[in-house]
Amino acid sequence: MFERILVAIDGSLESSKTLPAALEMAERFGSAVTVVHVREHAKFEGSDVDLGPDVDPERLVADAVARFTARGIDAHGELRRVSPNETPQQIVQVAADANVDLIVMGTRGMTEWKSIVLGGVANKVVHQAHCPVLLVR
User: Fold this and answer.
1) Total structural domains in the chain?
2) Residue 97: is it exposed, middle or buried by C-beta count within 10 angstroms (0-12/13-18/19+)?
3) Looking at residue 109, what is its pLDDT?
């Protein structure tokens, strides 16, 4: 049913909850997995400023991929750099490029009203994705 799964991680506690759900789905359906971490960067006074969390992005992706491969799941990782507010579009683009059947990602557990008002990353991905999106709380 889900031959290819995209797992979007951002280094947050909420994001870390997506890996167990994605592992279970990948094992159940024999899926290949793409792990993606999108880092926002901006120019500030001539310098490139990383706006992401205080985690090593390469290590974050490598550790996530290792969790899948340790369980015999075909997995690879991608790290993408984007301008501020382009994260949702980049997740959707990676999913389309990899022709995935499911996107798994975390949500901050915002109320429905706050999500509509603020237009969170998960909300935007759900509305723009070509495939089902599993949001993990």
Assistant:
1) 1
2) exposed
3) 40
pLDDT value of position 37 = 94
Give every residue of the chain whose pLDDT is below 50, as ranges.
Answer: 109-111, 113-118
CATH code assigned at 84: 3.40.50.620
Contact predicate 124/103, CB 8 Å:
no
> Which range of residues forms the domain containing residue 59?
4-136
pLDDT tens sequence across 55-77: 788 999 999 999 999 999 999 99
